[in-house]
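Hey, why these numbers?
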Amino acid sequence: MVNDPVIALGLGAFALLLLVLPLSFWALSGGRQDRVSSLVRFLVAAANLCLTAQLVLRWWDSGHFPISNLYESLCFLAWGGTLTQLLVERTWPNPLVPAAATPLALGCVAFASFALPERLQEASPLVPALRSSWLVMHVSVIMLSYAALLVGSLLSVAVLFTERNEQLELRSSSIGSGGYRQAQLVASDGPGVMNLSSSSFRISEQLDSLSYRTITVGFLLLSVGLVSGAVWANEAWGSWWSWDPKETWALITWLVYAAYLHTRLIRGWQGRRPALLASAGLVVLAVCYIGVNLLGIGLHSYGWFFGSEA
Protein backbone atom coordinates (compact mmCIF):
# COMPACT_ATOMS: atom_id res chain seq x y z
CA MET A 1 0.00 0.00 0.00
CA VAL A 2 3.00 2.33 0.43
CA ASN A 3 3.33 2.25 -3.36
CA ASP A 4 -0.03 4.01 -3.51
CA PRO A 5 0.78 7.75 -3.78
CA VAL A 6 -2.35 8.63 -1.79
CA ILE A 7 -1.18 6.53 1.17
CA ALA A 8 2.39 7.78 0.76
CA LEU A 9 1.26 11.41 0.94
CA GLY A 10 -0.67 10.63 4.10
CA LEU A 11 2.43 9.08 5.66
CA GLY A 12 4.44 12.11 4.60
CA ALA A 13 1.97 14.42 6.34
CA PHE A 14 2.17 12.20 9.44
CA ALA A 15 5.99 12.44 9.50
CA LEU A 16 5.90 16.23 9.19
CA LEU A 17 3.30 16.62 11.95
CA LEU A 18 5.26 14.23 14.13
CA LEU A 19 8.17 16.67 13.93
CA VAL A 20 5.95 19.65 14.66
CA LEU A 21 4.81 18.51 18.10
CA PRO A 22 8.20 18.21 19.90
CA LEU A 23 9.50 21.33 18.13
CA SER A 24 6.49 23.29 19.40
CA PHE A 25 7.15 22.27 22.99
CA TRP A 26 10.85 23.03 22.55
CA ALA A 27 9.93 26.53 21.38
CA LEU A 28 7.68 26.88 24.43
CA SER A 29 10.61 26.04 26.67
CA GLY A 30 12.49 29.02 25.23
CA GLY A 31 14.81 27.28 22.80
CA ARG A 32 15.36 29.72 19.88
CA GLN A 33 11.68 30.51 19.84
CA ASP A 34 11.57 32.69 16.72
CA ARG A 35 13.52 30.30 14.49
CA VAL A 36 11.78 27.20 15.78
CA SER A 37 8.34 28.81 15.45
CA SER A 38 9.08 29.68 11.83
CA LEU A 39 10.21 26.10 11.19
CA VAL A 40 7.04 24.77 12.85
CA ARG A 41 4.82 26.91 10.63
CA PHE A 42 6.75 25.74 7.57
CA LEU A 43 6.29 22.09 8.56
CA VAL A 44 2.56 22.54 9.22
CA ALA A 45 2.18 24.26 5.83
CA ALA A 46 4.09 21.41 4.16
CA ALA A 47 1.84 18.85 5.88
CA ASN A 48 -1.21 20.78 4.68
CA LEU A 49 0.14 20.72 1.12
CA CYS A 50 0.70 16.95 1.38
CA LEU A 51 -2.88 16.48 2.53
CA THR A 52 -4.14 18.78 -0.22
CA ALA A 53 -2.28 16.78 -2.86
CA GLN A 54 -3.55 13.55 -1.32
CA LEU A 55 -7.20 14.63 -1.43
CA VAL A 56 -6.92 16.02 -4.97
CA LEU A 57 -5.25 12.82 -6.17
CA ARG A 58 -7.89 10.62 -4.51
CA TRP A 59 -10.60 12.83 -6.07
CA TRP A 60 -8.95 12.41 -9.47
CA ASP A 61 -8.64 8.62 -9.10
CA SER A 62 -12.12 7.97 -7.70
CA GLY A 63 -14.02 10.53 -9.75
CA HIS A 64 -15.95 11.85 -6.76
CA PHE A 65 -15.40 14.10 -3.76
CA PRO A 66 -12.97 12.25 -1.42
CA ILE A 67 -15.29 11.63 1.50
CA SER A 68 -16.62 8.14 0.75
CA ASN A 69 -15.05 6.35 3.72
CA LEU A 70 -13.51 6.96 7.13
CA TYR A 71 -9.96 7.16 5.76
CA GLU A 72 -10.80 10.01 3.41
CA SER A 73 -12.89 11.72 6.08
CA LEU A 74 -10.04 11.63 8.60
CA CYS A 75 -7.59 13.01 6.06
CA PHE A 76 -10.04 15.78 5.16
CA LEU A 77 -10.46 16.63 8.85
CA ALA A 78 -6.66 16.71 9.26
CA TRP A 79 -6.46 19.04 6.25
CA GLY A 80 -9.08 21.34 7.79
CA GLY A 81 -7.32 21.21 11.14
CA THR A 82 -3.93 22.21 9.72
CA LEU A 83 -5.56 24.98 7.66
CA THR A 84 -7.35 26.35 10.72
CA GLN A 85 -4.14 26.11 12.72
CA LEU A 86 -2.22 28.10 10.09
CA LEU A 87 -4.89 30.80 10.05
CA VAL A 88 -4.84 31.07 13.85
CA GLU A 89 -1.04 31.22 13.87
CA ARG A 90 -1.18 33.99 11.30
CA THR A 91 -3.20 36.00 13.82
CA TRP A 92 -0.99 35.11 16.79
CA PRO A 93 2.35 33.43 15.97
CA ASN A 94 2.98 31.71 19.28
CA PRO A 95 4.24 28.12 19.77
CA LEU A 96 1.31 27.47 22.11
CA VAL A 97 -1.00 27.29 19.09
CA PRO A 98 0.74 24.36 17.32
CA ALA A 99 1.42 22.69 20.67
CA ALA A 100 -2.32 22.69 21.40
CA ALA A 101 -3.73 22.16 17.89
CA THR A 102 -1.28 19.77 16.20
CA PRO A 103 -2.51 16.66 18.10
CA LEU A 104 -5.80 16.94 16.18
CA ALA A 105 -4.28 16.55 12.71
CA LEU A 106 -1.60 14.15 13.93
CA GLY A 107 -4.16 11.89 15.58
CA CYS A 108 -6.43 11.89 12.51
CA VAL A 109 -3.62 10.98 10.10
CA ALA A 110 -2.19 8.38 12.50
CA PHE A 111 -5.56 6.68 12.97
CA ALA A 112 -6.26 6.74 9.23
CA SER A 113 -2.82 5.42 8.26
CA PHE A 114 -2.15 2.83 10.95
CA ALA A 115 -5.40 1.84 12.69
CA LEU A 116 -7.68 1.32 9.69
CA PRO A 117 -7.28 -1.91 7.68
CA GLU A 118 -6.06 -1.59 4.10
CA ARG A 119 -9.48 -2.36 2.60
CA LEU A 120 -10.89 0.69 4.35
CA GLN A 121 -8.12 2.91 3.01
CA GLU A 122 -9.00 2.16 -0.59
CA ALA A 123 -11.34 4.33 -2.63
CA SER A 124 -14.87 2.98 -2.76
CA PRO A 125 -17.80 3.88 -5.02
CA LEU A 126 -20.44 6.19 -3.66
CA VAL A 127 -23.71 4.69 -2.48
CA PRO A 128 -26.76 6.03 -4.38
CA ALA A 129 -27.80 8.45 -1.62
CA LEU A 130 -24.41 10.19 -1.80
CA ARG A 131 -24.53 10.76 -5.55
CA SER A 132 -25.85 14.26 -5.19
CA SER A 133 -24.67 17.79 -5.77
CA TRP A 134 -25.22 18.32 -2.04
CA LEU A 135 -22.25 16.08 -1.20
CA VAL A 136 -19.56 18.73 -1.64
CA MET A 137 -21.65 21.47 -0.03
CA HIS A 138 -22.88 19.60 3.03
CA VAL A 139 -19.95 17.34 3.88
CA SER A 140 -17.19 19.88 3.27
CA VAL A 141 -18.94 22.53 5.39
CA ILE A 142 -19.60 20.03 8.19
CA MET A 143 -15.99 18.80 8.18
CA LEU A 144 -14.60 22.34 8.20
CA SER A 145 -16.91 23.17 11.11
CA TYR A 146 -15.58 20.13 12.98
CA ALA A 147 -12.01 21.28 12.33
CA ALA A 148 -12.67 24.82 13.57
CA LEU A 149 -14.60 23.63 16.63
CA LEU A 150 -11.96 21.06 17.55
CA VAL A 151 -9.08 23.52 17.19
CA GLY A 152 -11.00 26.13 19.18
CA SER A 153 -11.78 23.59 21.90
CA LEU A 154 -8.14 22.47 22.07
CA LEU A 155 -7.15 26.11 22.56
CA SER A 156 -9.71 26.27 25.38
CA VAL A 157 -8.09 23.23 26.97
CA ALA A 158 -4.77 25.10 26.76
CA VAL A 159 -6.42 28.06 28.54
CA LEU A 160 -7.16 25.79 31.51
CA PHE A 161 -3.46 24.95 31.91
CA THR A 162 -1.92 28.35 31.13
CA GLU A 163 -1.30 30.95 33.86
CA ARG A 164 -3.57 29.08 36.23
CA ASN A 165 -2.91 31.50 39.10
CA GLU A 166 -3.93 34.56 37.07
CA GLN A 167 -7.48 35.91 36.80
CA LEU A 168 -8.85 35.95 33.25
CA GLU A 169 -10.91 38.94 32.10
CA LEU A 170 -13.09 39.30 29.03
CA ARG A 171 -11.86 42.35 27.12
CA SER A 172 -12.62 43.54 23.63
CA SER A 173 -9.77 44.37 21.29
CA SER A 174 -9.90 47.83 19.74
CA ILE A 175 -6.34 48.17 18.47
CA GLY A 176 -5.98 44.88 16.65
CA SER A 177 -5.31 41.35 17.80
CA GLY A 178 -3.31 41.19 20.98
CA GLY A 179 -4.19 44.55 22.50
CA TYR A 180 -6.99 46.62 23.95
CA ARG A 181 -7.69 50.12 25.19
CA GLN A 182 -7.79 50.61 28.94
CA ALA A 183 -9.55 53.67 30.34
CA GLN A 184 -8.00 55.45 33.33
CA LEU A 185 -9.37 58.41 35.26
CA VAL A 186 -6.54 60.89 35.87
CA ALA A 187 -6.93 63.34 38.73
CA SER A 188 -6.11 67.01 38.09
CA ASP A 189 -6.90 70.47 39.46
CA GLY A 190 -9.94 70.68 37.19
CA PRO A 191 -12.50 68.01 36.26
CA GLY A 192 -11.29 64.43 36.00
CA VAL A 193 -9.73 63.55 32.66
CA MET A 194 -10.28 60.15 31.08
CA ASN A 195 -7.16 58.83 29.33
CA LEU A 196 -6.88 55.76 27.15
CA SER A 197 -3.72 53.70 27.38
CA SER A 198 -2.86 50.63 25.34
CA SER A 199 -2.21 47.35 27.08
CA SER A 200 -1.48 43.84 25.89
CA PHE A 201 -3.31 40.57 26.40
CA ARG A 202 -1.67 38.01 28.61
CA ILE A 203 -0.98 34.64 27.02
CA SER A 204 -4.04 32.99 28.57
CA GLU A 205 -6.26 35.89 27.52
CA GLN A 206 -4.96 35.74 23.95
CA LEU A 207 -5.62 31.99 23.84
CA ASP A 208 -9.11 32.56 25.20
CA SER A 209 -9.80 35.25 22.58
CA LEU A 210 -8.57 33.06 19.70
CA SER A 211 -10.52 30.07 21.01
CA TYR A 212 -13.71 32.15 21.17
CA ARG A 213 -13.29 33.47 17.63
CA THR A 214 -12.41 30.06 16.20
CA ILE A 215 -15.38 28.38 17.88
CA THR A 216 -17.68 31.15 16.61
CA VAL A 217 -16.62 30.46 13.02
CA GLY A 218 -17.01 26.71 13.55
CA PHE A 219 -20.46 27.17 15.07
CA LEU A 220 -21.65 29.22 12.09
CA LEU A 221 -20.32 26.59 9.68
CA LEU A 222 -21.99 23.82 11.69
CA SER A 223 -25.31 25.69 11.52
CA VAL A 224 -25.03 25.98 7.73
CA GLY A 225 -24.06 22.29 7.54
CA LEU A 226 -27.08 21.17 9.58
CA VAL A 227 -29.47 23.18 7.41
CA SER A 228 -27.96 21.85 4.17
CA GLY A 229 -28.04 18.34 5.60
CA ALA A 230 -31.74 18.67 6.39
CA VAL A 231 -32.47 19.79 2.83
CA TRP A 232 -30.41 16.93 1.41
CA ALA A 233 -32.10 14.42 3.72
CA ASN A 234 -35.49 15.57 2.51
CA GLU A 235 -34.41 14.98 -1.09
CA ALA A 236 -32.75 11.61 -0.41
CA TRP A 237 -35.04 10.06 2.21
CA GLY A 238 -38.18 12.20 2.13
CA SER A 239 -37.72 13.50 5.68
CA TRP A 240 -36.11 16.69 6.97
CA TRP A 241 -35.07 15.07 10.25
CA SER A 242 -35.15 11.39 11.21
CA TRP A 243 -33.36 11.40 14.62
CA ASP A 244 -30.62 9.26 13.13
CA PRO A 245 -27.76 8.81 15.70
CA LYS A 246 -25.48 11.08 13.68
CA GLU A 247 -28.16 13.76 13.38
CA THR A 248 -28.95 13.52 17.08
CA TRP A 249 -25.31 13.90 18.14
CA ALA A 250 -24.80 16.73 15.66
CA LEU A 251 -27.74 18.53 17.29
CA ILE A 252 -26.28 17.87 20.76
CA THR A 253 -22.96 19.30 19.56
CA TRP A 254 -24.73 22.37 18.20
CA LEU A 255 -26.53 22.88 21.51
CA VAL A 256 -23.31 22.57 23.54
CA TYR A 257 -21.49 25.19 21.49
CA ALA A 258 -24.62 27.37 21.40
CA ALA A 259 -24.55 27.24 25.21
CA TYR A 260 -20.86 28.23 25.11
CA LEU A 261 -21.59 31.29 22.97
CA HIS A 262 -24.64 32.13 25.08
CA THR A 263 -22.62 32.15 28.29
CA ARG A 264 -20.08 34.51 26.74
CA LEU A 265 -22.36 36.85 24.82
CA ILE A 266 -25.45 36.99 27.04
CA ARG A 267 -24.44 35.96 30.54
CA GLY A 268 -20.98 37.54 30.32
CA TRP A 269 -19.05 34.57 31.65
CA GLN A 270 -15.35 35.25 31.95
CA GLY A 271 -12.24 33.28 32.66
CA ARG A 272 -12.11 29.53 32.66
CA ARG A 273 -15.78 28.65 33.03
CA PRO A 274 -16.54 28.96 29.29
CA ALA A 275 -13.27 27.15 28.57
CA LEU A 276 -14.58 24.21 30.60
CA LEU A 277 -17.75 24.20 28.51
CA ALA A 278 -15.73 24.27 25.28
CA SER A 279 -13.63 21.38 26.59
CA ALA A 280 -16.82 19.41 27.19
CA GLY A 281 -17.79 20.21 23.62
CA LEU A 282 -14.55 18.54 22.52
CA VAL A 283 -15.76 15.24 24.01
CA VAL A 284 -19.27 15.58 22.55
CA LEU A 285 -17.88 16.36 19.10
CA ALA A 286 -15.53 13.38 19.27
CA VAL A 287 -18.51 11.11 19.96
CA CYS A 288 -20.50 12.76 17.16
CA TYR A 289 -17.75 12.36 14.58
CA ILE A 290 -15.87 9.15 15.35
CA GLY A 291 -18.03 7.34 17.92
CA VAL A 292 -21.21 7.11 15.85
CA ASN A 293 -19.26 6.04 12.76
CA LEU A 294 -17.43 3.27 14.61
CA LEU A 295 -20.75 1.89 15.86
CA GLY A 296 -21.88 1.47 12.26
CA ILE A 297 -25.54 2.23 12.93
CA GLY A 298 -27.95 4.64 11.32
CA LEU A 299 -28.24 6.26 7.91
CA HIS A 300 -24.82 7.93 8.18
CA SER A 301 -22.83 4.76 8.85
CA TYR A 302 -22.57 3.59 5.24
CA GLY A 303 -19.35 4.32 3.43
CA TRP A 304 -17.51 4.79 6.71
CA PHE A 305 -16.06 2.25 9.15
CA PHE A 306 -18.60 -0.47 8.42
CA GLY A 307 -19.46 0.79 4.96
CA SER A 308 -17.58 -1.97 3.14
CA GLU A 309 -19.51 -4.61 5.03
CA ALA A 310 -22.93 -3.17 4.23
